[in-house]
Amino acid sequence: MNLLKILVVDDHALVREGLRQVLKGLDEQVEVLEAPHCTRAFELAALHADLDLVLLDYHLPDMNGLDALDVFGREHPELPIIMLSGSVNPQIMRQVLAKGAAGFITKSGLSNDLLAVLRLVLAGDVYVPPELFPDSTLPQPDESEAGKAAPQLTPRQEEVLHLLLDGRSNKDISRILQLSDETTKNHVTAILRGFGVQTRIQAVLAAPLYGYTKSAPSA
Questions:
Q1: Other Cβ atoms closer than 10 A to 25
Q2: Would the pLDDT of 198 be above 80?
Q3: How many CA atoms lie within 13 A of 1 on its CB side?
Q4: DSSP output for 67-112
Q5: What's the pTM value of the predicted model, to 2 decimals?
Q6: Those residues with Cβ within 8 angstroms of residue 203's Cβ, 6 or more apart along the chain or in another chain
Q7: Which of 47, 125, 149, 207 makes the best surface tag, with the fewest CB within 10 Å?
């Protein structure tokens, strides 16, 4: 059985330990990796290709959250990132989501709220704080792209894309298609390149404009 593996990046040890305890609410056996700064976070992400999610503090000693998202987007575009912050700043939230983050959560929230957001993102969705985005101002693909020729994907890449649209994680895709984790990661990267986007979240938003949809529910 594939267990969840989550990377927590925060420079405060007490915060990391608190999040470790909260994350047990997802799965008692969840594996939590910890990093006190971005340099260590990037090292761990490179060592653990099977990461399911990253919880990333916006204010870190060696790099801010937006710059860290750029690095994760280049090196691990298939990896969903949720940004954490102790302050509420709508402008920063919009910038974070525009960079391809899968969500933004304030540290003042309740544990159950955090778990609900994590489940949403792990299911392949994007979390937009409703109280700060009443008009759902999540950046969307340019509608003028609709109707253009779809990216040239191989049959296998199309299978992977449909599973992405279904909210499947890389681990799920590897299991369903009987692929290695590295092969799945390579297919996801090729899909992102085909759509001209940086993250899997952006690819999921763009795919319907080219005629790709979720799989039909089983009878």
A1: 15
A2: no
A3: 5
A4: HHHHHHHHH-TTS-EEEEESS--HHHHHHHHHTT-SEEEETTS-HH
A5: 0.66
A6: 161, 164, 191, 192, 195, 197
A7: 149
